[in-house]
Backbone:
């Protein structure tokens, strides 16, 4: 089945530094979603990308979908302590009757004040 | 509009007991998904249900685990004869009927199952 790998698994930054997590697939993706999970919390939807080369911004967060639709990235500019958590990419796997979300392995972000 | 409601939030079971986890989707949502998250790990898909139908159970262990989403009432994830390896956070997510546009999933706060 489809899988997505994320790197790095863990990133520790000083507050104010930038952060990037990458999501890679061996197959072409029809879409990619990003979620954030705070420590002890539940995943919360951030954004969905659908088009090749698409770039979307949410304040300090920039999301990009690769031209070949096989990779995606999330970049955070000038991290803050509120950015702490695990960031997951996810894809909707369509096949037969299913449309399950398959999650990447996640990147845990730690921000030191 | 209440979000996805899961209960209980925390559940402790002794080995060999049964665990029942409940999930009420958001109002208007007809699709329910269950995920398992082991400590320090990612979210593993278990099962996808619509009312009275199991659509995709490819992630469910073959034994001891079952799920339902009856016409009335919440979705239930049932684990029989629990073992220590079942200790995890179980998340339920719901989506509206899928069509054009966003297909985001809304997650509940999860049930943390501890088997002692």
Residues:
């Amino acid at each position: 089945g489809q899988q997505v790998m994320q790197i790095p698994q863990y990133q520790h930054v000083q507050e104010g530094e930038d952060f990037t997590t990458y999501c890679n697939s061996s197959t072409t993706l029809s879409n990619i979603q990003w979620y954030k999970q705070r420590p002890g919390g539940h995943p919360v939807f951030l954004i969905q990308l659908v088009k090749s080369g698409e770039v979307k911004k949410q304040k300090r967060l920039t999301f990009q979908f690769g031209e070949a639709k096989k990779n995606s990235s999330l970049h955070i500019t000038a991290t803050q302590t509120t950015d702490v958590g695990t960031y997951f990419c996810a894809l909707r796997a369509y096949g037969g009757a299913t449309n399950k979300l398959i999650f990447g392995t996640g990147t845990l972000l730690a921000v030191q004040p | 509009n209440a979000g996805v409601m899961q209960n209980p939030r925390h559940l402790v079971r002794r080995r060999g007991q049964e665990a029942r986890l409940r999930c009420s989707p958001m109002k208007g949502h007809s699709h329910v998904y269950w995920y398992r998250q082991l400590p320090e790990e990612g979210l593993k898909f278990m099962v996808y249900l619509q009312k009275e139908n199991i659509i995709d159970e490819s992630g469910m262990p073959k034994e001891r685990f079952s799920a339902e989403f009856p016409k009335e009432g919440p979705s239930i994830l049932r684990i029989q004869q629990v073992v220590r390896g079942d200790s995890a956070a179980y998340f339920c997510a719901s989506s509206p009927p899928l069509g054009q546009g966003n297909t985001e999933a809304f997650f509940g706060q999860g049930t943390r199952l501890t088997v002692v």
Remarks:
- The radius of gyration of chain B is 14 Å.
- The CA atoms of residues 47 and 58 of chain B lie 7 Å apart.
